[in-house]
Design goal:
Length: 323
């Protein structure tokens, strides 16, 4: 037996460790039965370089659709462009306001212990603006992930890669042609830039970017295509917020609003979160609450891992890869 699997099988007997192992086993069982897995990413997982462990999983055909925050979509690209220029700040808890100003003035945008250089963002902007203008001229719109895929396919862009493309989960998703839903796409650096371009008149319309409701329609059709073929789809959620709540709602929408009462619920559910239920947060809601919303069913395998996703998710991904 391989190293990570052997370690987890031997040591992960109780509490969150046991829940982690059970979730990995159940994911594997779902795939073995012909099922598929939908993954959601909240937080700053791309800046945490989740692509190192997630990209191989996508390439291996163990992930079939993704929903993430807009920041996760763009920050995977920023990391691909300029990871060697990132600056680690392990003592971030001790930074004074003056030290934060110094980082800001250097063009270092801090995400916890990691600073993303401004020039990584500017590289992406340059190429995306050209793509947005092409769509504007053609009178068409595309989803945010479709622009990212077009950008990554540009040989000139590929010359800017400074880490192996195998460390990019967006690159892996592009190679598999997976949908990457990004509800609230405007809530990111590139979304802010796009808005400013429209406001300043450099772009004439917001319609260059397809809307959130169009993304929901696309996801509903994606899900129903699988349901019609008898393919069960699981839901693996990293963190909470809109990255998780947007896609999981597609099932109750299909059942209650499209009146397809025989549509299947999600066939598996796992969430990694350090949130709690005490403040009524979606991020901390226990899986059984989702039964009342027609998201999960009584017999859906359910797992709630109360831990740090930057530690737990790579372990699960490595387990599934047989490492």
């Amino acid at each position: 037996m391989s190293t990570v699997r052997a370690f987890m099988e031997k040591n992960y007997k109780h509490f969150n460790a046991r829940e982690t192992l059970d979730a990995a086993r159940a994911w594997e069982e779902l795939l073995d039965k012909g099922g598929q897995m939908f993954v959601t990413l909240a937080g700053a997982m791309s800046t945490a370089e989740i692509g190192i462990s997630l990209a191989p999983l996508i390439e291996a055909g163990k992930v079939h659709g993704i929903c993430c925050t807009a920041a996760n979509l763009e920050e995977d690209l920023f990391n691909l462009f300029d990871n060697p220029d990132y600056r680690l700040v392990p003592h971030y808890n001790d930074l004074s306001p003056e030290e934060e100003v110094a980082l800001r003035d250097e063009g270092m945008n801090r995400v916890t212990d990691t600073c993303i250089p401004e020039w990584a963002m500017l590289k992406a902007e340059k190429y995306l603006i050209d793509l947005w203008k092409e769509s504007e001229a053609a009178g068409t719109g595309r989803f945010p992930w479709e622009y990212m895929y077009a950008l990554l396919d540009n040989p000139e862009v590929q010359q800017h890669f400074r880490v192996p493309k195998e460390h990019s989960w967006v690159w892996a998703a592009k190679e598999k042609n997976l949908p990457i839903y990004t509800p609230g796409w405007e809530d990111c650096t590139l979304g802010n830039k796009f808005t400013a371009l429209v406001m300043s008149g450099r772009l004439s319309t917001h319609n260059v970017i397809k809307t959130g409701t169009q993304q929901m329609e696309h996801l509903a059709k994606w899900y129903m295509e699988r349901a019609d073929k008898g393919i069960p789809v699981g839901f693996f959620q990293v963190g909470g917020g809109i990255a998780g709540d947007f896609p999981i709602c597609v099932v109750p929408m299909i059942i209650q609003d499209l009146h397809k009462e025989d549509a299947p619920h999600w066939a598996y559910f796992c969430q990694i979160s350090d949130s709690t239920t005490s403040y009524g947060s979606y991020s901390g809601a226990v899986p059984n609450e989702k039964i009342t919303w027609h998201k999960l069913d009584v017999d859906t395998p359910k797992f709630m891992i109360n831990s740090d996703a930057s530690i737990v998710a790579p372990l699960i991904f490595s387990y599934l890869m047989g490492e």
